[in-house]
Amino acid sequence: MSEQTFTSDVEVELLAIGAGPSNLGLAVALEELAPDLAENTLLIDRNPTIEWQQGMLMPWATSQVSFLKDLVTQRDPRSKFSFLNHLFETGRLDEFVNMSTFTPYRVEFAKYLRWVADSLTKVRIDLGRECVALLPRRDETGAVTGWVTTLADGTTITSRYLVYGGSREPNIPPVLAGVSPTRIVHSTSYRQRVAELSGELPYRVAVVGSSQSAAEMFRALRDDLPDSDVTWLMRSIGLSSDESSKFTNELYYPSFVDEFYQARPAAREQILREMYRTNYSVVTPPMLEHLYTDLYLDRFNDRNDRRLVTMVDITAARETDEEVVLELTDRRTGAVTELHRDVVFLGTGFDTRMPRLVRELAGNLELDRIDVSRQYRLELDSSSTAACYLQGVNEQTHGISDSLLSVLAQRAEEICRDIIAHRDGIPATAVSAKESAAL
Ligand SMILES: Cc1cc2nc3c(=O)[nH]c(=O)nc-3n(C[C@H](O)[C@H](O)[C@H](O)COP(=O)(O)OP(=O)(O)OC[C@H]3O[C@@H](n4cnc5c(N)ncnc54)[C@H](O)[C@@H]3O)c2cc1C
């Protein structure tokens, strides 16, 4: 990894924010397809190390998609940056083959990401740098000519091209928004926050949601806070496995993005609605088996400190010095009860809106709406000579696979080629988001 920490303001041609899989995939595509641009690209991340969903990096958690959906294979199976080559180069290929699995442990995939970052020779990576504001840079006519990115320490990075890969933001249900952050733990910071609690104390905790993340936290709490009393709250009738099949899985193909993007608004809505339970508010079958077996043995052993409460809404929450009190309304009967907890763990997913940084940038650009082209380029006034791309936050226009690993190898190439065309002054030919929505 070409790592270099800067202490004063810098200018680069391309700045990529967030060194997760999306922008690491882009860094690889740049090195392979546009080496001169790669030489003038900076990738930053607020974390001090390269991780993959660090807050949920439990040692037993596995990827839910095939290792073939790595940063490159679906774009170029001969790339040296593949997961298989990583195994080969690090002497683990035989062991992985012998496991006969398509889904590596998440810690293995995180290690692969670090190996990719270390193997880059052109793109510079600077870690521990948090972006706090994005502003357009304009010339005297008002045309947008670039971007000014401000970091938490006040330094700025100016660039002609900007790629946001900072992911979506945690969803905190409004009813819990007033509870102090010390008592609320979203899954994205589970591991860091649970490590601050004493494993020997008998906490009273709640887990909220019926997602895979909620399930993984419920399972992990058995080891992390073994003497605690854990109540798992969900609105649904119970835990369900994902509703995917090989047929619906075809809608996760990179090639389906075109079809989705060009679909009429009502069709997009139908697809997202019907695909919802292939990815959201569902739990993998192996995890369901594991959880059910644990609870079965709890009942056998007369243990009652782990329980599921289904069909319940948190209708209010108040906090005292000692605890948070959740008001629960039973969806079946309307009966209201109180639950007194020390900590509440949220498996409530992600905010469906654009991230705050992007919304604020759009406000500064005086955009009425945030539209991105098929090539993920933010739609700007035609006088603009700069471009900004958004990765992983375009589910509404590019489909349910947008936030996953499924499409990111191809997406990296599409963005890379669009930047090259933009630099060369070649007009975009693909149908724009506005045009497509009007079809
Ligand atoms: C627990 C969990 C498990 C998952 N498992 C799978 C799976 O098995 N298969 C799958 O396909 N998808 C999975 N996903 C979906 C996940 O979104 C993708 O796998 C992938 O991580 C998306 O990559 P990304 O780079 O877009 O976002 P992220 O991986 O979220 O990376 C974003 C990066 O941006 C950084 N960042 C954010 N804001 C800033 C800022 N202001 N300044 C600087 N840096 C910033 C973050 O530190 C982070 O490193 C999972 C998601 C979760 C939450």
Shape designation: globular
> DSSP helix count?
15
Question: Based on helices, strands and strand pairing, what is the structural class?
Answer: alpha/beta
What top-tier CATH class of the largest domain fits best?
Alpha Beta
The CATH topology annotation of the largest domain reads as FAD/NAD(P)-binding domain
Please describe the biggest sheet, giving its number of strands, its sense, and whether it closes into a barrel: 8 strands, mixed
Measured by DSSP, the beta-strand proportion falls in 15-25%
Q: What's the number of domains?
A: 2
Which spans have pLDDT < 50 for at least 5 consecutive residues?
Answer: 430-439
Q: Using only CA atoms, what is the Rg?
A: 23 Å
First-residue to last-residue Cα separation: 45 Å
Query: What ions, cofactors and ligands are bound?
Result: flavin-adenine dinucleotide
| Mean pLDDT score | 94
Q: Could you name the CATH homologous superfamily of the largest domain?
A: FAD/NAD(P)-binding domain
- How many β-strand stretches? 16
The share of residues in helices is 25-40%
CATH architecture grouping of the largest domain = 3-Layer(bba) Sandwich
Description:
With 439 residues, the protein is of the alpha/beta class. 32% of the residues lie in helices and 21% in strands. It has helices at 21-33, 35-39, 83-89, 93-99, 106-119, 190-195, 212-224, 246-249, 256-262, 265-279, 285-300, 356-364, 395-398, 408-423, 433-438; strands spanning 2-3, 10-17, 41-45, 124-127, 131-138, 144-151, 156-164, 184-186, 204-208, 229-233, 306-309, 312-319, 324-330, 336-341, 343-346, 387-390. A hairpin with a 4-residue loop joins strand 12 and strand 13. Helix 1 crosses helix 14. The longest helix is centred in the middle third of the chain and has 16 residues, at 285-300. Mean pLDDT is 94; it is low at 430-439. The structure holds flavin-adenine dinucleotide. Flavin-adenine dinucleotide (FAD) binds at residues 17-23, 44-47, 52-53, 56, 63-65, 130-131, 165-167, 213, 391-392, 403-406. Residues 17-23, 44-47, 52-53, 56, 63-65, 130-131, 165-167, 213, 391-392, 403-406 line the site of flavin-adenine dinucleotide.
